[in-house]
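Quick one, T. Sequence first:
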Amino acid sequence: MNDLFMELEFAQCHKAGQYVAGDAFLMQRDRCNGRLLAVLSDGLGSGIKAGVLANMTAHMAMRFAASDTDFIHYAKVIMNSLPVCQVRKIAYATYTVVDCSPDARIRMVEQGNPPFILVRRGREVPVPYREVPGKQGDYRLMREYIFQAQPEDRIVFFSDGVTESGLGSRHYKLGWRRTGCVEWLERHLTGDPFRSARQLAQDVVAQARQKEPGREAGDDITCAVLYFRKPRKLLLASGPPFSPDRDREYANLIGGFDGRRIVSGGTTSDLVARELGRDVRMDLRTFRKGGLPPVSVMEGIDLVTEGILTLTETLRLLETGDRPDHENAAVRMTELLLNSDEVHLLVGTKINEAHQDPNLPVELEIRRSLMKRIATVLDTRYFKKVDVEYI
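Structure tokens:
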């Protein structure tokens, strides 16, 4: 089970008319032991007040979980420390905590949030649990789950903005409800069984929003997905090797890679095409989309792009999280990187004199620096397994 990759992603839409989400989601991976932690909290109401309550609860849960405090003990501390609204008689914040070990053993606790959904081989699988009551004599119960995940399992958990979407509308008088979400997930994953966690979380939020009148969210909508799968590998190569004597070796590394391949840079793509005996041609349909040079096409390579400009824009998209409506080389590169689990960066160290002109804009950083920063953001923000090889 240790060779499984755990892809954890979330998507969120805040309530219409609010500028701050009332839900909070945190995730953390321990680089030393491979343990993965996630917390989803839903604050009472919406807007800034709800956001403060949700973030306070999520950060408290994350600190407890990371400290290796007894799992049930800290969950009960959180539940008992959160007061109940005297008017509405509901908790000021609800939460779901996920603790996943490297061998895919899962421990979860829920308090107030809708029960999570475990999808296995395209169908929901019930998971046994035990209930733990609070100490304040109120309605609150905490559910604890312990189970072993399997390859291709998906754990889908969300705030009640998903299950109550469309509440009171003509077609969803009682909301979408958990049963509606389960039915949709089973149909959706039957047609697309390898949908990534990132894409599936976005799909669930989009479906929930479609249930709302005018597609305006009546509450904060948050969905997170934890997907267990064999790693999806990708190679991003940019820059020719320092010595021309290694051109053949460099091209063979790219051609023989077991996974998706991106070649970035005109000189690099010409080198690979020459050494592998393949043609490279420009796709003029992508010309000037988003202000970047067009992509090219080469047999056996998933994406061929220009170098420094495209890498710079890709880094910006990764760091900011922007998702432009248009599609260009950087958007396609970003999507490939985010839909991969293990990323190998192959960096040629030959100096390109064209990029040493001091009159060029500051953002045109040298290739090595760009690739190093791309590796860092993929590792720290997106939890990808990244390695860099210089040649």
